[in-house]
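Justification of computing resources. Each target in the renewal requires a structure prediction run like the one illustrated here; the chain below, 265 residues long, is used simply to show the kind of job we budget for.
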Amino acid sequence: MTDAPHHNARNPQRAAEPAEGPAGATRRSVIATLGVAALGLATSQAAVAAPRSVDRPAPPLAAACVLTPEQTEGPYYLDLERVRKDITEGKAGVPLTLRVTVIDSTTCATLPNTAVDIWHCDALGIYSGYVAGGSTPDTTFLRGVQLTDASGVAEFTTVYPGWYVGRALHIHVKTHAGGTVSNGTYHGGHVSHTGQLYFPETYNTRVAALSPYRNNTATRTLNARDGIYRNGGSATLLTLAQTGSDVSKGVTGTVVLGIDPRATP
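Resulting structure tokens:
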């Protein structure tokens, strides 16, 4: 990774975070990142080789009934904990329906009422909440929390992420267990998993040619050249399917996370 973080405008005196994100962006507060730990080898969900007009069924849960590898939190997490399905806030991009299934890696049972917390950059590689590329510290786009349903599934409406120097396209994810929701915010509990989700290169290339992604001037890093992806990222490679005849109309991404709900960072 070649990009180096700058100080957050809200706290310019704090120490610099480890490089992980777009140049010109910084953390609001010091949060220790979790190192990449190969805690288990999960079965990769293979990317489709050609576009499909219908959703591909999720792989059997038993195939993912191992502990999904932890990956770094990165420097751009904000503990907003806002419970909402649609996190786009008007951001332009290819529509993405993200479905995350969470299972207990020790029992293979699905885990209802687990908080899935995601955040990612926009088409131009900008995270909300940081001073970078015209963004402001008070923005909250492309961040949100959903509780898994009775089948262990959390679903989000978002857009396909863009990229920035040194990183492949990805979505950050945490799971939280034992908390409660009040006034639209998730409270309490503990973090039971921290990781990242990735996208098949066949789709990345096609999306990169569309507006507004083609206005992103940063060099796109392939999965195979991303040092974080190489340490367990294949376990969380999304299975994608087009939701229409044209990729610009949207895609659906599915993944299974095997976690230990009792684990803490």
